[in-house]
Amino acid sequence: LFPFPYAQLIALLLFVFSIGTPAVMASICTSVHWGVMFTVVPVFSLYALNLIARELELPFGKDPNDLPLLEFQDHMNKSLVMLSHDNVDMIPHTRNHDMNFKQLQENT
What is the spatial distance between Cα 50 and Cα 54, in angstroms, rounded to a whole number? Predict the structure, then answer.
């Protein structure tokens, strides 16, 4: 969980931004359409960003966007069981005969 004072400060700043942006845009923009667009888009974007951050803050729950921890654990268990199988520990070996550098050059 995020620190409570930080979350409260973000909520307060979003509220101030939501109140202040229409006032500033009303004094700057001459067209109503541009004023509405320059007000709605940034305010909506910041609220959407805050909601996304809130959703990502706790990824270990039962919500649809949370991480599938049971599937991760099942996959990890299957991988560990696979590593305990006898055929998994196959180590590659090299041939054990003598070959010098001149023989290698001749073979290539």
Answer: 6
| HEC secondary structure over 7-67 | HHHHHHHHHHHHHHHHHHHHHHCCCHHHHHHHHHHHHHHHHHHHHHHHHHHCCCCCCCCCC
pLDDT tens-digit series, residues 42-101 = 999 999 999 988 888 888 888 888 889 999 999 999 988 888 777 766 676 666 666 677
How does DSSP classify residue 85?
S
The identity of residue 28, as a single letter, is: I
Distance CA(44)–CA(41), nearest Å, equals: 5
Tokens 């290539």 label which residue?
A: 108
Q: What is the pTM of this model?
A: 0.60
